[in-house]
Design goal:
The chain has 14 helices and twelve strands. The strands form two sheets. Strands 1-7-6-5-4-2-3 form a seven-stranded mixed β-sheet, with helices on both faces. It has a five-stranded mixed β-sheet with strand order 8-9-12-11-10, covered by helices on one side. It is α/β, with parallel strands linked by helices. It is globular and about 75 Å long. Helix 2 runs parallel beside helix 9 and helix 12 crosses helix 14. The chain folds into two domains: 241 residues, Aspartate Aminotransferase, domain 2 (3-Layer(aba) Sandwich), CATH 3.40.640; 135 residues, Alpha-Beta Complex (Aspartate Aminotransferase, domain 1), CATH 3.90.1150.10. It binds pyridoxal-5'-phosphate. The site of pyridoxal-5'-phosphate (PLP) has 16 residues, from helix 3 and helix 4.
Length: 381
């Protein structure tokens, strides 16, 4: 099956009893048993629920994995991966990391004696330098948030192969339409399904997709034992979101490129960071690692370098909404230093390049003319 067909049919079946084309909402906590221990395959909805199962099968299909798992949030999915580890284990993570992941690693898991190294993974050598006998997990995002750096997934996997180290990729920014990390050698893919997978800014949800059934089973055990499952209503919405993922991502990518090109030619703008631009330092890697386009996330800075200019611009947008998050059909604008990345200490932000004049756009699927006019007007203001 090719991708556009997969998002609609992959892993999916009609409901067995009535033939309902869409798997219904199974609003039940428990399932009747014929005789003690003799059941339909479903016992209790924390372990499995048919609506969530339909979503999980679709997730496994679109990421080419053995098993999908759906969580109550993206962070709950990350939490599940970290619980594979034992005290004393070490993790190497990319330095330009989603703020909430950084907060979880440093403020929750360090106190359970996990050790985190944050490195610039554009250069794979920075990873190999930090590997010790205790290294058990590599955690990376590509493209990164918000600096849109790319990490060569295949090179990272080759660098650690045979060492008993798992590679997990947060694929939220690219979505499975643009990039499938398991095909490039990763062991686990993670998504904040709140973003492109859900696609309508109406749910908080997370996903893991495991390359092998064994790893899928281990992660399912942790999910079952810790309890951070996605409920049936939100599972239904996420599954509905997946059906239009390909067509939405196509438009996000077309609009993203046009917005990036427009900003690049605007006199008030200093730097535009978008992997689809030929001047992006890793444009060649983007072309080989991603497919079908480069997504809807565009980051830029002001020629003046002034925080006030960024704030004024954000206050004057009318079609773009000033809000955290990304990946919905509507265009959003964000000021990372004051909003999504405020939990990262200022010195650390400066070190990695999240300056106070930096703006991140999540370009939606509206008419491009309206988006460009909105940006132009807000820059004039
Ligand atoms: C939003 C986001 C998360 C966290 O997901 P939630 O659903 O908000 O818990 C993790 N990684 C990335 C890249 C994100 O954008």
């Amino acid at each position: 099956m090719k991708f556009n067909t997969k998002v609609i049919h992959g892993g999916q079946h009609h409901e067995a009893v009535t033939g309902a084309v869409n798997v219904p909402l199974f609003l039940t906590s428990t399932f009747a048993q014929k005789s003690p221990g003799e059941h339909s395959g479903y016992e209790y909805s924390r372990a499995a629920n048919p609506t969530r199962q339909a979503l999980e099968d679709a997730l496994a299909s679109i990421e080419n994995g053995a098993r999908g798992l759906a969580f109550g949030s993206g962070l709950a999915a990350i939490d599940c991966v970290l619980k594979l580890l034992n005290p004393g284990d070490e993790v190497i993570a990319c330095d330009d990391l989603y703020g909430g992941s950084y907060r979880m690693f440093v403020r929750l898991f360090e106190k359970y004696q996990l050790k985190f190294h944050f490195v610039n993974m554009e250069n794979t050598e920075n990873i190999t330098e930090k590997i010790t006998a205790k290294t058990k997990l590599i955690w990376l995002e590509t493209p990164t948030n918000p600096l849109m750096k790319l990490i060569d997934i295949k090179a990272v996997c080759q660098a650690v192969s045979g060492k008993g180290i798992l590679v997990a990729v947060d694929n939220t920014f690219a979505s499975p339409y643009l990039q499938n990390p398991l095909d490039l050698g990763a062991d686990i893919v993670m998504h904040s399904a709140t973003k492109y997978i859900g696609g309508h800014s109406d749910i908080i949800a997370g996903a893991l997709i495991a390359k092998t059934p064994e790893l899928g089973e281990q992660l399912h055990f942790i999910q079952f034992a810790s309890g951070a499952i996605l409920g049936p209503h939100d599972s239904y919405l996420a599954l509905r979101g997946i059906k239009t993922l390909a067509i939405r991502m196509q438009r996000h990518s077309e609009n993203g490129l046009k917005v990036a090109e427009f900003l690049q030619n605007h006199p008030m703008i200093k730097e535009v960071i978008y992997p689809g631009l030929s001047n992006h330092p890793q444009h060649e890697l983007a072309k080989s690692q991603m497919r079908n386009g480069f997504g809807g996330m565009v980051t830029f800075t002001f020629r003046s370098g002034k925080k006030e200019d960024a704030i004024k611009f954000l206050e004057n947008l009318k079609v773009f909404t000033l809000a955290e998050s990304l990946g919905g059909v509507e265009s959003l604008a964000n000021h990372p230093a004051l909003m999504t990345h405020a939990s990262i200490p200022a010195e650390k932000r400066a070190e990695i390049g999240i300056t106070d004049d930096l703006v991140r756009l999540s370009v939606g699927i509206e008419d491009i003319e309206d988006l460009l006019t909105d940006i132009d007007n807000a820059l004039k203001a």
